[in-house]
Amino acid sequence: QVQLVESGGGLVQAGGSLRLSCAASGLTFSRYTMGWFRQAPGKERVFVARINWSDGTTYYADSRKGRFTISRDNAKNTVYLQMNSLKPDDTAVYYCAAKRPISGPWDYWGQGTQVTVSS
Fold first, then answer.
1. CA 82, CA 17: separation in Å to the nearest integer?
2. What are the angstrom distances between the C-alpha of 2 and each of 52, 85, 89, 109?
3. Which of 4, 23, 54, 77 is the most exposed place for a label (fewest CB within 10 A)?
């Protein structure tokens, strides 16, 4: 049974930083592309970042490029999202996801962690 468990969310002031973690189990983590998505209140879930399993290449949503950094530790089966210079607009539930092929749909999702940025 695959599980993705996010942690590290919380309340932070604008300009602050948070590091989200997503611990994976039940899959061969090193063979999965991992991603982060966000869903703001009343809005659709949107892509934030992903890191490929094959070569560690990273991709970011343009709106978060330069402030967010995705990384992974295959030894710990964990993917991270370092978020700096946070803005109130970053307030959302952040979800971790995993997929086996680099292209195609995401296979597994976590339950999400709330990030709230106060002005």
1. 7
2. 19, 33, 31, 9
3. 54
- Whole-angstrom distance, CA of residue 9 vs CA of residue 21: 9
CA distance linking residue 96 with residue 81, whole number of Å: 9
Give the 3-state secondary structure of residue 88.
helix
pLDDT at residue 65 tops 80: no
Look up residue 99 and give its two tokens.
């997929």
The sign of the torsion formed by the CA atoms of 102, 84, 112, 61 equals negative
By residue count, the chain amounts to 119
Distance of CA 56 to the CA centre of its chain: 15
pLDDT tens-digit readout, 66-89: 899 999 999 999 999 999 999 999
Q: Is the dihedral of CA 19, 24, 50, 106 positive or negative?
A: negative
Separation CA 11–CA 52 (nearest Å) = 29
